[in-house]
Amino acid sequence: MIGYILRRFGAAVLVLFAISVLVFLIFFATPGVDPAARIAGKNADPATLEQVRASFGFDQPLPVQYLMMMKHLFVSHDLTSFVNRGTLVIPQIMDAVPVTLSLVVGAAVIWMVLGVAMGTLAGAMRGTLVDPLVMLLGVFGVSLPVYWLGEVVNLVTQKELHDSVFSWVPPLGYVPLSQSPGQWALHLLLPWLTLALLYAGIYARLLRGELIQALNEDYVRTARAKGLSERRILIRHALRCSLIPIVSLFGLDFGALVGGAALLTEVVFGLPGVGKLTYQALQNLDLPVIMGTVLYAAFFVVLANAVVDVLYARLDPRVRRA
Amino acid sequence: MSGVEPIPAVAAPVRPGAGPWRQAATRILRNRSALTAGAGLLLIALVCLLAPVYAGSIAHTDPFVSNISGTTVVGGQEVQVLQQSTEGLGLGVTPIGPTGDPGHYLLGADNQGRDVMARLLYGGRNSLLVGVSSALLCCALATVLGVVAGYFGGWIDAVLSRFFDVIWAFPVYLLAICLSVVLLTSGLHLGPVHIDAGSLALPIVIIALIYVPYVARPLRGQVMALRDKEFLHAAVGLGASDLRIMRREVLPNILPTVVVFLPLMTALNMLTESALSFLSVGVQSPDASWGTIINDGLALLYTRPMITIAAGLFVALTAVALNVFGDGVRDALDPNARLRGGA
Questions:
Q1: Model-level ipTM above the cut of 0.85
Q2: Interface of A with B in 45-84 (CB under 8 A)
Q3: Chain B from 218 to 247: CB within 8 A of any A CB
Q4: What's the CA gap between B165 and B207, in Å, rounded?
Q5: Interchain CB contact of A282 with B (< 8 Å)
Q6: Which of A194, B119, B190, B339 is most buried per CB count within 10 Å?
Q7: What residue segments make up the domains of chain A, in order of their start?
Q8: Residue of B162, B179, B308 with shortest CB distance to A151
Q9: What is the C-alpha to C-alpha distance for residues B337 and B343, in angstroms, rounded to an integer?
């Protein structure tokens, strides 16, 4: 088991290295792309371009540039922004992490509770109205653009019904948990629900499928033959097995969202999280910030992948030999 | 367990003796929700294809030309398309809202005085084009890579699988945005491939590339399972070349899965396109897509919400139809396929 874990995390480190090289190549080695020209502006004269090249180190060979960037990022922790010179990248990301974590953790709690409850209900009450309703919500979950749903939510709660039903909704933005827990939750409530609604549908639908398959298994028939109650069979036998793929999917989704996949939700609701930071950096082509946020994002995705794999290997010994 | 439809592990043959594709077609034709969704898709595609007819013969406008000082007729009265704002200091202008009259700005105008309904139809053509062609490109690339990796195994598989791992670990939107930001200014010049910045082909290629692992990974697994089958050993024994075995023995066996992926990937790619366009790194002006129209409507969200709402409804309806239709295709061809989530 320990050997498997070591191998798995070794592979994860290699993937992270490959991602950092890939991002670096995308921005520095794409044919026709000159980072100096971007920093200097559209109509910069050759002398200015040379100056920018020398001052940012673009005249060095690519591997040297890559190593310099990695050294600033991981060894001396003093990587600075290209656009706002003097702004350190790592503190910027660290400031944004709590916002993203607040958004994602809250949404995850809501969508897991909702998704598991709805999926179990739909699986247990096939043929009733609950079933098609969950299926429909599942289709919406994979079909509605989250940023559009967020805009419509904003329209209704900030404008159309703001004077009546939704007068309690605060303006868009973020209040730190340490400053005021009540305001923190109030500001995040609608972003949480928007993000959670789509995931809850996807999870409920997946769980329903797993549960129906599990209820057809031999061990459920055995449990019935032993005379157990339907409720006990559903919850203690069928649901336990059906939750394994859900939990592993949750690991991957959670990792991706913490890493910045909640970018659209953050942009729409004006939450200054990692996704929004990445988005702003991309708009200004602030390469060090992009490198920092993308590596941060990839770290969470790779970590989540590795943790899920190790958990799977713990549950199913056959995987360890693969 | 009475009154509950059993979930078949393998779809029951509906017409014994018929080939698998014909059986699947029969199953789809009996699936009412898939048929409804398919009809809805055809309708949306048809309406979008007729965009020039709508703009030319019904709305009488060019949705790509600003009409800032133009006028139109509402209820028999001539009014400005861009009206002086009555809110705040009254300095800005607000475009005309929905009139309900197809000849005169059915869904109103955007902030350049262009007919929103006509733009939605033209934008739909681009959204559908990007969705469909990137899904085709993605599935084609993934099939080639998945078959090669799964069939040859060894170091070829190791290299390709690591490549999939790296793209897989990259949050898809971040990768798409990184590529778009770079390529949208310089265009793509890779060997014989030359794509101009601002070309529609750019989002198509980018979106196709980022989702290759999603399709290639499950295909690779299927091909690896096929390698131990007797008919494959038989083909090897007959002296067939690797290329022939891949083309004539392996490909027909995984093609149903590829077909199952197509409508679902089209929905996913269309949603990705709209998200990228919403972030203004997708379809570039003067071209429009549903995503760019949602983005255009944002500035007017609180005064003329119909622009954003209508464009988003088009995206959502098309994606729902594609997903429902795709589920029907999956049930007909390969009910056990695990396409969403995890795998």
A1: no
A2: none
A3: none
A4: 17
A5: yes
A6: B119
A7: 2-90, 96-315
A8: B308
A9: 10
Which among A94-98, A128-132, A253-257, B339-343 has the top mean pLDDT?
A: A94-98
A248:B342 CB<8 A:
yes
Q: Tokens for B287, please give them.
A: 């071209």
Q: Which residues contact B285 (CB under 8 A, 6 or more apart)?
A: B292
Q: What is the mean pLDDT of chain B?
A: 82
Long-range CB contacts for residues A162-171, cutoff 8 Å, separation at least 24 = none
The pLDDT tens digits of the residues spanning A263-300 come to 889 988 989 998 888 888 877 778 788 888 888 888 88
Asked if CATH classification 1.10.10.10 holds for the domain at A96-315, the reply, yes or no, is: no
Helix (H, G, I), strand (E, B) or coil at A114: helix
- Residue A317: is the preceding peptide bond cis (ω within 30°)? no
CA distance A192 to A184: 12
Instruction: Give the burial class of B213: count Cβ atoms within 10 A of its Cβ; 0-12 exposed, 13-18 middle, 19 or more buried.
Output: buried
B198: β partners: none
Given pLDDT bands bounded at 50, 70 and 90, which one contains residue B153? Answer: confident
How far apart CA B81 and CA B67 sit, in angstroms, is 8
Residues of A within 8 A of B6 (CB-CB) are: 216
Contact A216 B182 (CB under 8 A): no
CA B198/CA A41 separation, integer angstroms: 20
Going by the DSSP 8-state scheme, the letter that residue A238 receives in this structure is: I
Question: What's the pTM value of the predicted model, to 2 decimals?
Answer: 0.85
Q: Where are the alpha helices (DSSP H) in A155-286?
A: 181-215, 218-225, 230-232, 239-256, 263-269, 274-284
Q: CA-to-CA distance for A161 and A142, rounded, in angstroms? A: 28
